[in-house]
Amino acid sequence: MNKTADVIIIGGGIVGCAAAYYLAKSGTKNVIVLESTKSIGHGGSCRNGGGVRQSGRDVRELPYAMYGIEHLWPTLSEELGVDVEYTQKGNLRLGKTEAHLKKLQTLADNAKKVGLGVEMVDAKEVQEICPYLSKEIIGASWCPTDGHANPLTTTLGYYKRSLELGVSYYTDAKVASLKKIRGKVRQVILIDGTVFEGEQVILAAGYESRAIARTVGVDLPMTRLIDEMFVTEMQPHMFDIMLGTAAADFYGHQAHHGSFVFGSECGYEEVTDMDDPSKLYTNSMTLSASCRAVMDYVPCLKDAKVVRSWCGWLDNAFDGVPFIGPCLDAEGLIVACGFTGHGFGTAPAVGLMLSQMVHGEKTVVDLSALAPNRFMPNK
């Protein structure tokens, strides 16, 4: 077991795997990735609905979301040697009430200020874009450059290519703490006492990042929330666009093989008995509510059978956007967590920029608004 590296990455999800790939591609010879579970991508990376979107985001996220969609996603299958099933056919975010439309209009107006091509469309235009939707929909935001991809093949694609480039992965490697040596974060200590040492450490372990960062005096204010997914039996081809709603009660798309994949929240998740992170099971009450939400917007799916459901943990940042960047009060530590359910589609861009941070390069877009120290006490 090699216990020293130029860069140690904590977290074997898509962000960690992408960072490992771009580091190895850029010439970093010795990269170690530590994953706490038995499998790569065990967390939210492989438990989401695959949205690759810009619309509906906080404006602080838009620059790197837009960069990834313009420069990275279109050629990612060829680069990774795996079909990531990237489909760029647009995203409708649907509304049924005037309050919904007001919310969507605000999001669209804010997005247009930073250069995103997103427009409001009326009920007639919604039906022209996707005639399978409910006639109760009175309008939507429409972003034609949004899309979707396969989270499993994308995550494993980054893993496979980084392995080929020499990255070392260790599973069942749960981190207990970090340690500073002469004022700089250099050591990563596992719960069994094993010590890894690196010139720089990237912390991309989802919600678990908070406890790990606290061991060197860094707090990343976030909470944990269950996000549920389900997939239907295969259906005749209907549409290739991504769907979302102003009320955020579901999102999803039709996969290449015909099944529909939906992610959802009904509001009840926060009060269900899900305190143990190992209990990744769905709830009959929340799942049925999610199905009703889908049927309200896509009535033609009312008789479609649900063949599988699953869930995963979201790391919800206090202000709804992630923590990405070096920690000012913990030299040598770079964090990337708190993605609040928005992390899959931006992972290629985030992985690339983490590599740039390690090398001391200017990132492709300005990330200062997402700095980990933005909640530091100032009194």
TrEMBL record:
Residue span, FAD dependent oxidoreductase domain: 6-357
Transmembrane regions: 7-24
Keyword set includes Iron-sulfur: no
Keywords for this protein: Membrane, Oxidoreductase, Transmembrane, Transmembrane helix
An MF annotation (GO) of this entry: oxidoreductase activity
Signal peptide stretch: none
GO cellular component: cytoplasm
PROSITE patterns for the chain: PROKAR_LIPOPROTEIN (PS51257)
Matches recorded under InterPro entries: FAD-dep_OxRdtase, FAD/NAD-bd_sf
Protein name in UniProt: FAD-binding oxidoreductase
Species annotation: Roseburia porci
Lineage: Bacteria, Bacillati, Bacillota, Clostridia, Lachnospirales
